[in-house]
Amino acid sequence: MTTVHTEQQPERADDDPREPVRPTEQDEVAAAGSELFGGPVGRRALTGRGWWSPVRVIALVMIGLFALGMVQKLPCYNGGWFYGQTTQYVHACYSDIPHLYNGRGFADGLTPYFDRIPAETSGGMEYLEYPVLTGVFMKVAAWMTPGGGDIVEREQIYWLVNAGMLMVCAVVIAVSVAWTHRRRPWDALLVALAPAFALNATINWDLLAVSLTAVGMLLWARGRPLGAGVLLGLATAAKLYPVLLLGPLLVLCWRAGRWRAFGAALGGAALSWAAVNLPVMLGAPQGWSKFYTFSQERPVDFGSFWLIISQRTGIALDGESVNTWAILLVLAGCAGIAALTFFAPRRPRFAQLAFLVLALFVLTNKVYSPQYVLWLIPLAALARPRWRDFLIWQSCEVVYFLGIWMYLAWTGSGDAHQGLPTEGYQLAIAAHLIGTLYLCAMVVRDVLRPEHDPVRRDGSDDPSGGPLDHAPDRFVLGRRARSARTPAPFENSLVRWGTRQAG
């Protein structure tokens, strides 16, 4: 049977396409949760008129959530990082930031990548094992940390300085998500209220790359592919994962025939990445390459299904073999996502494919650090803005967050056996894997059955698609994709609304 997709109408005849979508009218969980704050917000509060606009509210909520995450680290700030190895695990308040201040030479004023780190402080790591832009971020925070005095106090101040800088990144992420879908700014509350965001925000420096990626996606949504590419290139210079988003752009532009837009994004990404990396690559090649060699040589580690296999079978998996298998799994998964793109009845949204590709990378990687969930949270809010599914996934991530620290407490407490044994930690890993797969399944269902996609219920096509939004298809596979027609531009909804009001 041939399926013909007609243009979707706004849900209510009196909906104004110029006003934000009301999540409490479309999402039963959001409606129920709003009762804690006096019930659903009215039309006037949601229109953006007055000071309390959606973006300002979301920014303030993000700051509040981030502050709660800092409070959660208080037991470690008061001594857990320095005076007791297992304290930081028992209280689940571990952070790399204070440890690496001295361990990577920042306390001694060393220049990352150029200066070799003394073995007595580095634990055998000769050079900083982070990408260049993250190293710059760390060094700027070190410049802002007062020198002299007790090293413990300096590490505390260094963490506070980094936390302040990362808070700015968090606000940028929330605001960028709010602006990406013009009619759905309130979806950014999923980011601003994500419990895993608060718990993991100050473990490491991942929010720098996440914020640059969020701005890059915003620029793409605004039809600026070159600027989007520049930001994605900078994000890749801070963390490797953002380069994966070029894959979804490739297949989406292929289906829409928008090769010029993809070329601009690809060129911008290459140029900005090279501008950051080439000076260090040429001036300190050994230090620059440390991140890439460390990632390649790293053995099977925490959080991966590879670790479960190794622990359950008693076989020590070889790191090089796992690298090969992981790459093959990623390539096979990407081929499946590409097929999904070309066979889908409507072209998938950019955020949907971006989430699927990144989730694929996370699920197949040989290590899953708890802060990696920060990569997925903004994409999940854009790809599947449904509170029930989002909270199910977040619950699984909170279980994993607690599980890894309790497991480290178990392994580090000797005969005291404080924490979670190996079998319990494996269940925590399974919770993370199942939760992520569940959200992936929901996104794939939305792609295959676009009528279930919450973003497209009001007649929208791809608000985060930029040059792809309402673009006609040029290359598709399968009868369902060929029979689908591209929806009319959303501006037609505004014309229809004005006609109804005039009538």
Automatic annotation (TrEMBL):
The chain crosses the membrane at residues 51-71, 157-179, 191-220, 226-254, 261-282, 325-344, 350-369, 390-408. Keywords: Cell membrane, Membrane, Transferase, Transmembrane, Transmembrane helix. Residues 1-33, 454-487 are annotated as: Disordered. It comes from the Bacteria. The keyword Transferase applies. InterPro entries: GT87, UCP010361. It holds the Pfam family GT87. It is found in: Cell membrane. It is a multi-pass membrane protein. Belongs to the glycosyltransferase 87 family. This is Glycosyltransferase 87 family protein.
